[in-house]
Write a structure and sequence with these properties.
By secondary structure, the chain is an alpha/beta fold. It has helices at residues 6-9, 20-23, 36-47, 71-79, 83-91, 97-103, 107-110, 126-139, 163-174, 191-194, 203-216, 236-242, 272-283, 305-316, 427-432, 460-463, 468-487, and strands at 155-159, 178-182, 219-221, 245-248, 269-271, 297-301, 321-326, 360-363, 365-372, 378-390, 397-401, 407-410, 413-416, 455-457.
Length: 505
């Protein structure tokens, strides 16, 4: 059994980071590259802090991990230095722990019992332990291809190669189906490839998992717009004729814009993904980015993960200054259990490693207008202090100025990271007879099947822009439903229901 006093013996210790002056000048991951003995020793200590609670909220589907990761089990296996069994238990619920260990914001840690009181000195470093298990497993060749023993004779098309689509594809391949993943970009991975910066996850981590999937029998087709009519595309009619089932994992990439904001049409004002994608392509060797922050005063509008990705990217490109603007109040440094009682996701200031590297954040401010020069290039942003109010009847939020005072910040590059509206407009939707919901997503029934028979949906396309762990959970769940649709029954796990939501205050 776990050591019930482990958290009293060892203090919480997050993974050490590389020195800031070093990491802002390259694209390598921000964390220190430790030796294998260092990783094993430190991870065992951190795993020893887990008490194996009688009711482990960390892997609760609503409060903690939607994948249902068996966190207390693999924590104790790591404590006992059984890395092979720890890897087995981790992979039993998560196809890609090396992704979630790097990218997930860890709702499991917020739901850890040790997060209840500051006296415990912090939750178990679940995310750090998860990444260490995955990395050690790869280093020791414990991650092997799993080939099905019996072919079903059924063919499945997965549209989109992000984490949801890849999870569905791997599960269905292992169930014996012939699976082809179609990706419209020239490389596989979706946002894992072109949205997530290299300093958060080096693409070699993605490539080795894709190699495993290829070895298992999953087929991949790139530079193919499914539903399109250009050379190399696959029409919706051909899709229907060639495959017994279709999984839509096309993401929610319709970036939210602010077209009515004065000065939005000035040169130098872009959506966040217009900055991140070419930057990631440059890291892939495709040549210089088309939108560089080098030597520029950069303003990032938005307070989430995408804004932080732009923040770190701008610093690495050599920005003269970086300011991130958030219209909401500054959250507290410590969890306020009156506002967000444990184990719900706490309202707390979330500081990413990039925020330690330079730049500034401002709260309760909004852009009143973009100010341009005589050549139509943005040169500044005009800011006002604001308050976000919620209409009690409609629930809609409204940004209200609290002062007539307007201040200016110099700006050569403005990036809008204010969220996503849902699934992009694409010919495939018309070809399959599908419509987007008022939220911009694709609806489905309790078995993940859309209104188009034999067509299923998962991930951000169904949920809206969300966490990598939810995408993988939905990919695994939709695989169960597709397998049952094709064969009449399924032994594949189904961790979440289409209506599942995280527990919120």
């Amino acid at each position: 059994m776990a050591d019930p006093r482990g958290f009293l013996t060892f203090r919480r210790a997050d993974a050490p980071k590389r020195p800031k002056p070093e990491r802002v000048h390259d694209w390598h991951e921000v964390y220190l590259d430790q030796t294998a003995p260092e990783v094993i020793d430190e991870t065992r200590k951190q795993a020893s802090r887990c008490m194996d609670c009688g009711i482990p909220f960390c892997h609760s589907g609503t409060a903690g991990c939607p994948l249902g990761n068996l966190i207390p089990e693999w924590n104790d296996l790591v404590r006992r230095d059984d890395w092979a069994q720890a890897s087995d238990r981790l992979h039993a619920t998560n196809n890609f722990p090396e992704f979630t260990g790097r990218l997930c914001p860890a709702p499991c840690e917020a739901a850890c019992v040790l997060a209840l009181t500051p006296a415990a000195e912090g939750a178990v470093t679940i995310k750090r332990v998860e990444q260490s298990i995955a990395d050690v497993a790869w280093e020791r060749d414990l991650v092997v291809s799993q080939n099905p023993g019996l072919a079903s004779g059924k063919k499945v098309a997965v549209i989109g190669s992000g984490p949801g689509g890849l999870a569905a594809a791997q599960q269905l391949t292992r169930a014996g189906h012939e699976v082809t993943v179609f990706e419209r970009d020239d490389r596989l991975g979706g946002l894992l490839r072109y949205g997530i910066p290299e300093f958060k996850m080096e693409k070699a981590v993605l490539d080795r998992r894709l190699a495993q999937m290829h070895a298992e029998g999953t087929r991949f087709v790139t530079s193919c717009e499914v539903g399109g009519s250009a050379p190399g595309d696959l029409s919706a009619d051909r899709l229907r004729a060639d495959f017994d089932a279709v999984v839509l994992a096309v993401g929610a990439l319709d970036g939210r814009d602010a077209p009515d904001l004065p000065g939005r049409d000035l040169a130098g004002v872009h959506l966040a993904m217009e900055h991140l994608v070419p930057s990631n392509r440059e890291c892939e060797g495709d040549g210089p980015t088309s939108i560089s922050a080098h030597g520029k005063h950069v303003i990032i509008i938005g307070g989430g993960d995408t804004a932080a990705d732009c923040y770190g990217t701008a610093l690495r490109q050599g920005a003269a200054s970086v300011h991130q603007l958030d219209q909401y109040p500054r959250p507290p440094d410590q969890a306020d259990f009156d506002r967000s009682p444990w184990p719900t996701w706490p309202w707390i200031l979330r500081t990413y490693p990039v925020h330690e590297e330079g730049g500034e954040r401002a709260f309760e401010v909004a852009v009143d207008r973009f100010v341009g020069d005589e050549n139509g290039q943005v040169r500044a942003v005009a800011l006002r202090k604001v308050r976000v109010e919620k209409d009690r009847t409609t629930g809609r939020r409204e940004v209200v100025p609290v002062s007539d005072e307007v201040t200016e910040l110099p700006c050569d590059l403005a990036l809008l990271a204010i969220g996503f509206n849902g699934v992009e407009d694409m010919p495939l939707l018309d070809g399959l007879g599908l419509r987007r919901s008022p939220k911009g997503t694709l609806s489905c029934g309790p078995d993940w099947e859309t209104e188009s028979p034999g067509v299923f949906v998962c991930g951000d396309a169904h949920r809206g822009a969300s966490l990598v762990v939810w995408a993988i959970a939905e990919g695994r769940a939709v695989a169960h439903s597709v397998d049952a649709f094709l064969t009449g029954t399924s032994q594949l796990p189904s961790p979440v229901h289409p209506t599942a939501l995280p527990l919120m205050a």
